[in-house]
Design brief:
By secondary structure, this protein is mainly α. It is built from eleven helices and three strands.
Amino acid sequence: AMARWECVINEAGLHSGVYRKLHEAAGDPEKYSKILEHSFGNNSTPTLSRRGINLIMFQKWALCDANNKGRRIFPPTEEMVYDYVAECEGKHLPPSRAAGLIQALNLAGTILESPVPQGEDHYKDSSRIRGCVRQCTAGKAVLKKSADLTVEDVVVFEDFLRNAKNVEDRVFAGFVLYCVHTRSRAGEAARNHQEPFVDDAGATPFVCNQTPRHKTSSFRNLVNRLIPICGHARGFRNFNWAQAWIGARCEAGLDAELD
């Protein structure tokens, strides 16, 4: 992701405040690295990767001699941005291509400290750009999600956890049940900083844990805000799958605090 953004920074040149700061720190590798870290650290790697790709495609399009362009993308003018999104619509490119560029330019303007032209050249105020992007996204296919797990499906994993001889298979089956019973996303369940435990103080046992990583987490609250994870430790067959899974993890030598 950073390799793409360094290309974008070089393309922005003196139009970017970050470029100027990096140029001044060129003789100090530690300072150079810190500027990049602090400038991009508030954004997730997937976001930086997607938006970096959007900008690289825009840059290649703008500089393509075959298209008689030969234009630089910084500062992004209203006319150039409109030409690009109109071409996305005319050539029936992926529906998210045009909207992705607008999001990428907004992000680049903030991170790179690159002001955009004002007045008629301000792409954010252009009604024709907004209309064109809307037309592109109107043809986006309906999102199809995977089928929900049925009770029978969950029971299969419970039986697999109980009967499988291979410890790796039991660990995998238990992880699936952990996600199902605690309503956790796989990314959240995989980023616990401590081993799960079973709270059996009451009549119904629960599997409990905490995670700092979740869908709405941000850089600012990753360190000091833990989201509780909790779910039934017994499954549909009244089998304590959570205790069996924790035992399988111990047998496999897994430890969330170390891993």
